[in-house]
Structure formats: C-alpha cells, structure tokens
C-alpha cells in the first residue's frame, strides 16, 4: 500500500514536471514566434523604406549637389544639416505637376552635439526675391516657377542659410499618413468651416476643443488662415507636425508604420538617400532629443498690384538668420540692410 502511494506521488510529480516543461516550451515557442514576426516586420519596414526613398529620390540639380552656401558637401552623420519640408497644394483632385505652389514651408535645422532641432515656419505669402524669376513675389510662387530647386534657392536667398536636403509631399500623403495613425489629437482653437482636399466648399466643420482629427480635418486645420493670420497658421503647422511625429514614434503605432510608409510612397520627392535618412535615426532614438519651434515676425497688407503679402520685419529676419546659422555651427555675419530688403523700395499699402 505504501509502495503504491509512493508510486502515485512520483507519477503526479512527473506529470507536473511534464506539464511545466510543455508550458515552458509553449511559452518559448510563442516568444520565438513573436521575435520572428517582429524581426520580419522590422525587416519589411526597412526594405519598404529603402524602396520608397530610392523611388522618390530626385536630385535638386545643383553643382556637386550641394548648397552654394556650403564650401563642400555635407554628411548628416558628421555634420549639422538642414531639411526644407515643402507641402504642395496638389493631390488626386489637383494634378498640377511641377506647376504647383507650396502651401506650407517648414525649415528644420539639426545640431548633432546638442541633439536638437529648430523648426521654422515660413508663411506662404511672404514677400521675397525669387532668383529663378528675377523679381520679388510670394514665396509660394517659387515652386510654380521652378519646382523644388527654385524654392530652395529662394529660401537660401531669403535667410542666408544653406538648404542641404528637401522633402516634398502633397495633400494625399499628409491625409493618408494621419489616417494610417488613426488620427491625431489636437486642441482646435476655434470653430471653422473649410474646404476639403477636393476643393469642396465648407466640407470640413470643426468645433473648438481637444478632439481626435482625421487626415482631412487635420489638413483643413493646417491650411486654414481665414480666422487668424499667417503666423498663427504657421504655429499650428509646426504643432501638427510635432503631434504626427509623436504619434508615429509611440509604441501604439509600431505596427501601423507599414501603412504610413504605403501612404507616403508615390506622394514624396526628396534628395535624401537611404543612408542619409538612416543617419537621422540618432536623433529620434535619443530620449533627450528636442524640437524648438521658431517664427518670423512681420505684417501683412496689400501692395500696388492689389495682392495681399506678408512682409517680414528686417530685425526678425536677421535674428532668425543668426539663430539658424548658429545652430548649424556656421559663421555669423550681418548682411547690409539693402541685402535684407525683399525688393527695392516697394511698401505694403494699408
């Protein structure tokens, strides 16, 4: 009787150990599968990103493919660099091709030692000299007159800051990126009606308050300028870009990045190469990385041609120039007042 009891206890222990082994094996197998899926997914994202950047690559067309304000080409791995983000007023409903205007211009400078970025919004109606045209007009006309190259040259002429890289996206990319992330939360400052990306009048209606926005709603909020001014519009665009970046970098969006990449493909042009893009990861993976938003001061009004322009204050322009050149670790010098003037002697009429 005693021997039988001992044998039963041993069988129970053996069964418990067997069940534990099976459980551990199952857990181990599950973890291996998860790791395999994760590695496979990351590999897919890596390959997909490389494919999109390769297909979207388009050189500016400059000598040595560098800014005239640089002595030699730069490498984002070793140097502080700048990136001009160009939001185009095109999409499926607006197939303008190169004959499109920039609806948003955001200039970002990156400093490796400080692990910081500065983000400047340039109002679309800013009155500037456009080298491609040989006269002064709204800065958003530069892209219409000569694409990304003319836009880059205009911004460099305006701010005396080298533009090393550019990224241009259209309405479709913006909308689809936000929708791929299941929207973003934003505190809408006022009630407004705005057209959608297909130019349907008053198709978008938002009430004030913190809320989840779709891609179309986010685009409408970023574009709207009837309810405040170009400076506030630029600030909203800066904040929206930061919200999108934060949402994309959050753990909850990890498995949505494939959809984000799909939405960008075909709607993107850039002179960044894949290896260049990888070097920017050092900023994104550092928890101490910070983005500071800066803005130009000025005033708006109509000129002799009857059109409305935003004219930047010369002191503000000089301040931003110094700040950005300093952030890029470039020598700082003060340009003559005549060099800072956008045009010879034309003034805004109030």
From TrEMBL:
Any matching Pfam family: LytR_cpsA_psr
The protein's superkingdom reads Bacteria
Give any single GO term for biological process.
Answer: cell wall organization
Keyword field contains Transmembrane helix? yes
Keywords carried by this UniProt record:
Membrane, Signal-anchor, Transmembrane, Transmembrane helix
For this UniProt entry, which segments traverse the membrane? 23-42
Domain Cell envelope-related transcriptional attenuator, residue spans: 101-249
Question: Gene3D superfamilies given for it?
Answer: LCP protein
Q: Which family does it belong to?
A: Belongs to the LytR/CpsA/Psr (LCP) family.
Q: What is this protein called?
A: Transcriptional attenuator, LytR family
């Amino acid at each position: 009787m005693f021997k039988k009891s001992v044998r039963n206890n041993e069988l129970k222990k053996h069964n418990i150990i067997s069940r534990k082994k099976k459980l551990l094996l199952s857990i181990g197998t599950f973890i291996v599968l998860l790791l395999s899926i994760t590695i496979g997914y990351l590999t897919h994202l890596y390959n997909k990103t490389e494919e999109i950047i390769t297909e979207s690559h388009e050189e500016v067309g400059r000598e040595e493919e560098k800014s005239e304000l640089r002595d030699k080409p730069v490498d984002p791995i070793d140097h502080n660099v700048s990136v001009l983000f160009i939001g185009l007023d095109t999409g499926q409903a607006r197939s303008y091709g190169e004959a499109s205007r920039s609806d948003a211009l955001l200039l970002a400078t990156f400093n490796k030692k400080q692990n910081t970025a500065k983000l400047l919004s340039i109002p679309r109606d800013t009155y500037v000299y456009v080298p491609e045209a040989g006269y002064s007009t709204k800065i958003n006309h530069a892209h219409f007159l000569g694409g990304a190259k003319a836009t880059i040259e205009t911004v460099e002429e305006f701010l005396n800051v080298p533009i090393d890289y550019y990224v241009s996206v259209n309405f479709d990319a913006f909308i689809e990126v936000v929708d791929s992330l299941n929207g973003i939360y934003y505190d809408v400052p006022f009630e407004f009606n705005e057209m959608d990306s297909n130019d349907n009048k008053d198709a978008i209606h938002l009430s004030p308050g913190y809320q989840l926005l779709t891609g179309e709603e986010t685009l409408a909020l970023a574009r709207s300028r009837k309810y405040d001014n170009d400076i506030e519009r630029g600030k909203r665009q800066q904040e929206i870009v930061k919200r999108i970046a934060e949402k994309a970098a959050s753990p909850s969006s990890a498995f949505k990045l494939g959809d984000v990449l799909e939405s960008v493909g075909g709607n993107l042009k850039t002179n960044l190469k894949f290896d260049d893009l990888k070097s920017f990861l050092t900023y994104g993976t550092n928890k101490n990385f910070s983005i500071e938003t800066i803005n130009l001061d000025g005033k708006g009004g109509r000129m002799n041609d009857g059109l409305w322009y935003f004219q930047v204050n010369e002191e503000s322009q000089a301040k931003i120039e110094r700040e950005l050149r300093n952030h890029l670790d470039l020598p700082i010098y003060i340009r003559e007042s005549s060099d800072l003037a956008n045009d010879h002697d034309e003034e805004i009429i109030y």
